[in-house]
């Protein structure tokens, strides 16, 4: 098996830590969506980016790494579906437009069951979602991260071949040290940050379309400069989009052209060389 460039960069030292990819997965790019704190819209950004990539014809999967608070299946209208097995492997569920999803939610009896798993079991679940899930050929696997920069996030970065990180923030984060947490984690893990998205950045006036910055003038450019990050997109507060996420209709209802710069940044990530070998 070819080692990835991350392992090579670390002198091979990270290799034993990395979870192995199975023979039925050919994942070309892994992009994680991270924030320094919870509730800022990581899942909404992950889902939206997946939809936009898929609309462009790419094969897309979402690994829901938020084991204790999964929100991806519901967004794609698969809240009551259960994952199936193929021999020893799990099969991701497939959305209306062909997006593959693996989530703890798909393994629970009832969507409302509380997830009371402990640390080692959570790490085991992440491993299952990578090593024991048959992803097939994917151009992009997006990883919806759990809130914050704790153990689960660490496990993901240590164990999966993450190529890039999209950092999601809210206007409030930009006046505190919350962005620094995400940036520090990315630095420590040696994974490049593709850029920063400001969610709930403004409200669009329903009458004239003007952007109303209800949290005051955005600090996004300033913070991006401080941490040397690329500004990707700014998303407005959009109650219709939140309702679509709740109703499981994000694929039908996401406005065209959402997150254009994030989409471009994802497309600019180079495909894993190891997977080129595997296909040959
Ligand atoms: N731009 C937006 N406009 C309106 N509602 C939004 C927007 N972004 C997120 N929301 C809503 O805010 C809530 C939190 O968003 P989301 O679940 O995406 O955040 P998260 O960062 O993934 O949270 P967690 O850390 O708990 O995983 C959801 O109900 C979502 O629909
Ligand atoms: Mg989430
Ligand atoms: Zn107006």
From TrEMBL:
Which controlled-vocabulary keywords does the entry list? ATP-binding, Hydrolase, Iron, Iron-sulfur, Metal-binding, Nucleotide-binding
Q: Note the subunit structure.
A: Homodimer.
Q: What is this protein called?
A: Iron-sulfur cluster carrier protein
Function according to Swiss-Prot or TrEMBL: Binds and transfers iron-sulfur (Fe-S) clusters to target apoproteins. Can hydrolyze ATP.
Tell me the protein family, please: Belongs to the Mrp/NBP35 ATP-binding proteins family.
Against SUPFAM superfamilies, the record matches this protein to: P-loop containing nucleoside triphosphate hydrolases (SSF52540)
Question: Would I find Iron-sulfur among this entry's keywords?
Answer: yes
- A Pfam family annotated for this chain is ParA
**Mind telling me which InterPro entries this protein's record contains?**
Mrp-like_CS (IPR000808), Mrp/NBP35_ATP-bd (IPR019591), NUBPL-like (IPR044304), P-loop_NTPase (IPR027417), YlxH/NBP35 (IPR033756)
Give the residues the record marks as binding ATP. Answer: 36-43
């Amino acid at each position: 098996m070819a080692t990835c460039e991350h392992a090579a960069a670390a002198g091979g030292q990270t290799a034993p830590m990395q979870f192995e990819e199975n023979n039925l997965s050919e994942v070309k790019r892994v992009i994680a969506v991270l924030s320094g704190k919870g509730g800022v819209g990581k899942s909404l950004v992950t889902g939206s980016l997946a939809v936009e990539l898929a609309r462009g014809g790419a094969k897309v999967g979402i690994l829901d790494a938020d084991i204790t608070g999964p929100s991806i299946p519901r967004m794609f209208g698969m809240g009551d579906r259960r994952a199936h097995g193929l021999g020893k492997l799990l099969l991701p569920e497939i959305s209306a437009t062909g997006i593959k999803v693996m989530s703890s939610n798909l393994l629970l009896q009832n969507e409302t069951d509380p997830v009371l798993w402990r640390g080692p079991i959570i790490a085991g679940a992440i491993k299952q979602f990578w090593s024991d899930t048959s992803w097939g050929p994917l151009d992009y696997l997006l990883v919806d991260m759990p809130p914050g920069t704790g153990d689960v996030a660490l496990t993901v970065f240590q164990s999966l071949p993450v190529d890039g990180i999209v950092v999601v923030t809210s206007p409030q984060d930009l006046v505190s040290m919350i962005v620094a947490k995400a940036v520090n984690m990315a630095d420590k893990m040696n994974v490049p940050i593709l850029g920063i998205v400001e969610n709930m950045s403004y409200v669009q006036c329903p009458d004239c379309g003007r952007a109303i910055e209800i949290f005051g003038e955005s600090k996004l450019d300033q913070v991006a400069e401080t941490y040397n990050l690329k500004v990707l997109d700014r998303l407005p507060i959009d109650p219709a989009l939140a309702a679509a996420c709740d109703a499981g209709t994000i694929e039908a209802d996401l406005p065209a052209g959402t997150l254009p710069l994030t989409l471009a940044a994802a497309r600019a990530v180079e495909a894993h060389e190891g997977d080129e070998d595997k296909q040959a």
